[in-house]
Amino acid sequence: MTTDASTNHDPNYKWKVLGIVMVGTLMAALDSSIVNVSLPRIMADFGASVDDIEWVITGYMLSFAAFMPLTGWLRDRMGPKVLYILALIVFTAASLLCGMSWNLGSLIGSRVIQAVGGGAITPIGMSMISDAFKPHERGKALGYWGVGVIAGPALGPTLGGYLTNQVSWRSIFLINLPIGILGILWALKTLKHDRPVHTHHKSFDLAGFMFLTLFLVSFLLGTSKGEHEGWQSTYIVTCWILSLIGLVGFLTVEPLVKHPIMDLSLFGNKEFTASMIVTAARSVALYGGTFLLPLFLEQMMGFDEIVSGMLQLPGALCIGVMMPLSARFADRFGVRSVTLAGLALLAIYLFIYRTLDINTSMWGVVYPTLIRGFGIGLLVAPIMATAMNAVPHNKTAAASSMLNLVQQVSGSIGIAVVGATLSLRTKFHLNVMASGLQDRTSPVVASAARALFLRAHELGYNHADSARVAQGLLTRNVVTNASVAGFEDAFLVGVSIVLVGIFSAFLMPSKTAPVSKEHMVME
Fold first, then answer.
1. Which among 114-123, 147-156, 389-398, 430-439 has the top mean pLDDT?
2. In this structure, are residues 53 and 104 in contact, taking their beta carbons and an 8 Å threshold?
């Protein structure tokens, strides 16, 4: 058995555990989005395309998700303290490699290694908190911890923008070094020694792990590369086939093995299942939105990294304010009501951006992020507490891994889906608008071309040059409008995904998060 921190003689020990876990969690969560506003600068340095640069984020999140299922098995073999400290060491060392990257491939590879550490930090940290606090205290504890889980991705663009503009994009990774070293030293000094849960040999579910990894990697590859390779190309069709094989194989193998890498029986609890679906919808809104908005602000509106980050800061602060309060709201109004309110706010935030364009005011950019902040802040602690309290005490580690896996995989899928939508719909709008531009009989096109021609002529151009300038400006305007329309469509796709979460929210408990009978007995 592991040491139960809640029974430790030091009454403050559980809060120390929370503080230590928050340091590591904030660092890992921050790196899931801190690179977003730096993508244009990295693209310029390495000469990368949008399709390629997407893997700086998706590669991290995919590796993060692929390694998460291993944490339950490793925790049983090594103990929480050893695994947590080892994860911090791997993450910190990989951050140094990211900062020293010499090309895009080395950066993506370093991000994959970094995510191996990050993939263990979050679920093992959540499990440590669940062990340290009693069920009735978990809502509040997870609310504070959730500040790091969610505020990290939300604050990432602001911090990343400042560091990129004032220092360099490499500094967004090197800043992890002092934080990581502090977390390692604090954990070594404070965390009590624990023994592995299973001192005897526990077999590793290799087949389940391989099938799950095959599914995740193939699905993300197919989703993110579909537009680039062609949705009916051999490459993409192969990805879909492999992902289907991986999913079917995983679902077939897991019920048959003695020690499955993912305990699918947890989905027999409707509150736990509903929590997973809501978490997925929340992650799509958070990660998809934080991927699209910085690209729009910098590429379409022309803001630099600092301004782009600052415009997203108020929304991040809202998350930090709401997170500790959400557990109280759930106790008073019920988990179901708070969850529905949070998801509705997320849908509204994404829906507002359907009219986003290059002339949108700064306030028009900021106030939807405030709505998002309130929505995200309402969702984290109540959902986590509901999921953790719905399972037996001896399955909290498995539930934690599952919860974080769903969060990260859905975040990766969200980025891939909105990225593919952006590319596909931009091309669609460009074809439609370009065909309209070629229609010389259109009075709108003729009027715009005439006005631009006259303006160029007034500036001193001759007739031939004035005609070329007018045509160039018209073409640039079409490209800009098509790109804006593509972004608007991508935000609307996010709305439709969040609506799925709203339906599942009705399965959440109407009152406070229930505690399973097995959980109460174990406590």
1. 114-123
2. yes
Instruction: Determine the number of helices (DSSP H) and then strands (DSSP E) in the chain.
Output: 19, 0
pLDDT at position 197, please? 55
Determine the residue type at 117.
G
**Average model confidence (pLDDT) across the chain:** 77
Confirm if 83 and 196 have CB atoms less than 8 A apart.
no
Region at 367 (left for phi over 0; alpha for psi -120 to 50; beta for the rest): alpha
Instruction: Map tokens 């998706």 to a residue.
Output: 58
pLDDT of residue 456: 57
Report pLDDT digits (tens) over 256-274: 888 787 778 888 888 888 8
C-alpha of 167 from chain center:
25
243 CB-near residues (< 8 Å, 6+ apart): 214, 215, 218, 219, 222
Closest CA to 119 of 227, 8, 212: 212
Structural contact between residues 352 and 371, judged by C-beta atoms closer than 8 angstroms: yes
In the structure encoding, which two tokens stand for residue 356, read together?
Answer: 């986003």
pTM of the model: 0.70
Give the side-chain half-sphere CA count within 13 A for 1. Answer: 7
- Sign of the torsion formed by the C-alpha atoms of 224, 227, 228 and 229: positive
Kindly report the number of other CB atoms within 10 A of residue 101's CB atom. 21
Phi, psi at 249, each rounded to 5°? -60, -40
Cβ burial of 261 (10 Å; 0-12, 13-18, 19+) is buried
Give every CB contact of residue 144 below 8 A, 6+ residues apart in sequence: 18, 22, 323, 324
